[in-house]
Design a protein that fits this description.
alpha+beta, Alpha-Beta Plaits, two-stranded antiparallel sheet, two-stranded antiparallel ribbon
Length: 97
């Protein structure tokens, strides 16, 4: 489900910022891709933060920040970003391809 951008901008201050700190298990070890944000394009709409099923985002100074240990690499954030500032890149976990 896509969220109406106007509603996000209007209501985003009323939404409590994430529960990512409550997730204890590192989910990153089995992902194949990870999100990378281009902050020069980010419009702070927080669609990525709202849509993330794994609580892999937190908000700092109104910008979404990825908590890599919580990210499974599903790409929902990149798919729903209205300005396409999130790209999914290959994650090798320190290994070479």
């Amino acid at each position: 489900m896509l969220v109406d951008e106007k509603e996000i901008k209007k209501e985003k201050r009323d939404i409590p910022y994430g529960v990512a700190h409550e997730v204890e298990k590192d989910m990153s070890s089995w992902r194949t891709h990870k999100p990378v944000i281009d902050y020069t394009k980010c419009i702070k709409c927080l669609t990525c933060w709202i849509g993330c099923p794994d609580f892999a985002y937190e908000v700092k100074k109104d910008f979404p920040v990825i908590r890599n240990e919580n990210c499974k690499g599903c790409g929902i954030c990149a798919e729903h970003c209205p300005v396409k500032c999130i790209k999914m890149v290959r994650d090798f976990h320190g290994k070479k391809d």
